[in-house]
Amino acid sequence: MQFQKNILLKNYTTFKIGGPAKYFCAIKDKEELVEAIAFAKKGQLPFFVLGGGSNLLVSDKGFKGLVLKIQDLRLRIKDSTIYAGAGASLTELVNAAANAGLSGMEWAAGIPGATVGGAIRGNAGAFEVEMKDIVRKVEAFDANDLRFKIYDLRDCGFSYRSSIFKKNPNLIIISAELNLKKNNKRKVREKMKEILNYRMDKHPKFPSAGSIFKNFENIRARDLIEKAGLKGKKIGGAQISDQHANFIINTGRAKAKDVLALIDLAKKEVKNKLGVAIEEEIQILS
Ligand SMILES: Cc1cc2nc3c(=O)[nH]c(=O)nc-3n(C[C@H](O)[C@H](O)[C@H](O)COP(=O)(O)OP(=O)(O)OC[C@H]3O[C@@H](n4cnc5c(N)ncnc54)[C@H](O)[C@@H]3O)c2cc1C
């Protein structure tokens, strides 16, 4: 397999921000994953697992290790079960489910870039549905003891935007079995369209990583940021969206340092003015 050098990570994130990875490889199957981890261990390199880069801010200096881009794109449907490779795109999953008359993934319509692996790891969700509601089994490789393991739903440790895979970065998700519900195709498509229209209307059109901060049960981070008077605030090429205050957008030439400065400002201002400590939902790679 090929280990490429000095690959610009901005091209692999929806934020379109970030410096180079020292080494970069695409992983299509289990054998390649084992080989890549052996390469990292031999060279004493840290590794980072990259899905669609849609929840990620990569530092301007990049990453001095090995980036593993998960590219197992398989999607197979049998009855109401979908078998998905970790690199399969959520958008394709949403479309495949709709075409098969399966309900449960409509909430993810219109999320750009995301993969099944990244979504499971962060227990992604919206409109009161989360990955935990459809995951039945996950297969992961443990880069610590070099074994492949199967996790049933109850072993996945899902909670709001978290899972056992997030808590243990040695666990690399390779595939999943998802359990959806049979429904009328037209109804699934209508729900999808409704969600797609909502996102088109409410989400900014500029490059971003979606919501920067986690919400609380009864308070949305976007309302706190707005109340702190930060809507539209700009630093360098990054801006707190004036359309959705939990989005930071890349207006063209944003650097990671600009986004980090806005994150820092939002945390300080929300804490000082409203007494609430907000916490990042996005992952930061440096
Ligand atoms: C416009 C927009 C709207 C969005 N809306 C939503 C929303 O409604 N709800 C929501 O929850 N999120 C939303 N997001 C955020 C994002 O799409 C999700 O968090 C998504 O699940 C991240 O998946 P990814 O493949 O892009 O992960 P990446 O960004 O590539 O990675 C995120 C983290 O997951 C890890 N990871 C990725 N793949 C694997 C794997 N196979 N095994 C182990 N770890 C892995 C990475 O190491 C990293 O730490 C939105 C993003 C955008 C840009």
Characterization of the model:
It is built from 7 helices and 18 strands. It has 286 residues and is α+β, with helices and mostly antiparallel strands. It folds into 3 domains: 4-70, Uridine Diphospho-n-acetylenolpyruvylglucosamine Reductase, domain 2; 75-202, Uridine Diphospho-n-acetylenolpyruvylglucosamine Reductase, domain 3; 221-285, Alpha-Beta Complex (Uridine Diphospho-n-acetylenolpyruvylglucosamine Reductase, domain 1). Helix 2 packs antiparallel against helix 5. The protein is globular and about 50 Å long. The two termini are 25 Å apart. The mean pLDDT is 97. Flavin-adenine dinucleotide is lined by residues 14, 48-56, 70, 86, 111-115, 117-119, 121-122, 124-126, 165, 172-173, 203, 208-210, 283.
Describe this protein with a few key phrases.
four-stranded mixed sheet; globular; Uridine Diphospho-n-acetylenolpyruvylglucosamine Reductase, domain 3; about 25% helix; five-stranded antiparallel sheet; Uridine Diphospho-n-acetylenolpyruvylglucosamine Reductase, domain 2; 3 domains; binds flavin-adenine dinucleotide; alpha+beta
